[in-house]
Amino acid sequence: MTSKERLLIALRGGKPDYVPVSPDISVMVPDRLDGRPFYEIHLDGREHYGWTSATHGEVYVKAVKYFDMDGFYMYGGLKEIKPPDSPELESEIMDIPEGKLAKRIWHTAKGDLREEEMFFAGEPSWRSSKPIKDLKPDFEKFKLVMGEGNWKWEPTFRDKHVIGDLGVYLGMIPVFQDWWFNYRDGGFENVFMDFMTEPEYMDEVHELWMEWALANIQAMIQAKPDMIMLGGSSASLSVSSPDIFRKYELPFIQKASALCKSEDMPCHLHICGKSWPLVEIVATESDVTSMEPMEEPPGGNIHLPDIKKRFGKKLSIKGNINTTRFLLTATPQEVEDKCKRLIDEVGYDGGFVLSSGDQVALDTPDENLFKMVEVAKTYGKY
Predict the structure, then answer these.
(1) How far is it, in rounded angstroms, from Cα 16 to Cα 23?
(2) Is 170 contained in some domain?
(3) What total number of domains does the chain contain?
(4) pTM greater than the 0.85 cutoff
(5) Is 86 within the bounds of a domain?
(6) How far, in Å, are 156, 288, 289, 309, 379 from residue 219 at the CA level?
(7) Which domain holds residue 165?
(8) What are the pLDDT digits (tens) for 326-349?
(9) I need a surface site. Which of 50, 188, 207, 361 has the fewest CB within 10 A?
(10) For residue 21, which phi and psi values (nearest 5 degrees)?
(11) How far apart are CA 231 and CA 194, in angstroms?
(12) 358 CB-near residues (< 8 Å, 6+ apart)
């Protein structure tokens, strides 16, 4: 059985040959293993349409092979076909003491939008300036960048071959709070101030975004990824609230997951940090088929055996070994014991992918990840 087959069976609620194992090494660990400066991997100058670089996607697959794990490839996307009069994007990369600085300018008919992103040698990038600074004037400019309907994408994913049968290829799209945080200068403070002080205007922003997001999902479904993934890190209750989730995220999740269901496409949701009330909402009020990472304390508030008992027939589970305190510092024997407990308590009848919480830390011992894989392949046999 291939990793792709194993994951798809488990994420549809079934029992494969053994419990799939896919710790979330999506950002830092692959780049560390590669050995090049992180900025060299992410500023590769190659054409790519996912949320990171083409080279990083390849580096991730090398790490999947290194650990002999089941891959969760979330780096691709469809190329959007922009109309000829779309605003021009100008970019420049400069050397700075910390590494590299990428400056980007969109030249629109209503004025320029600017952002800056810092890239480092040994840690992930950070955007020090985002394009939407003055809410209403800048979003009016951004609408020219984004377009207002009749969106079109290429019909195929250009990088689906990169993961092949080593894992699942996910067509990923952010939920609203992730998308708004991505472009709104000032971080969460301004994101939530917008929601509180400009609710009517943010309803307009949300409506346009949801039209675009659903159109993108429809295009991705036609391009046939293995799954659709809804990325919801910023919807976490570590920073947000159930009321905001119900207003801005749930209507989209319901429509997106219904689209997936109509095409027999699995729909996977990522919400890290504290997520317990959201799991119940998603399980009972949407057609989402699987969810991750359902983090345990201290970063989260999920007890996986409880989730399994209450929602295991509805939601497949991917999770949830703590990354910041446990995987980073535990011994391989402690990792083995914990993996076995999770398999006993959550993986006993399928519908489970043994994984970590959000983002395995940069300096996590390789031995601990190898141990997760070993336990899944031996103790996790069905």
Answers:
(1) 18
(2) yes
(3) 1
(4) yes
(5) no
(6) 9, 18, 20, 35, 40
(7) 3-80+151-378
(8) 999 999 999 999 999 999 999 999
(9) 207
(10) -135, 120
(11) 21
(12) 24, 233, 272, 273, 293, 295, 299, 323
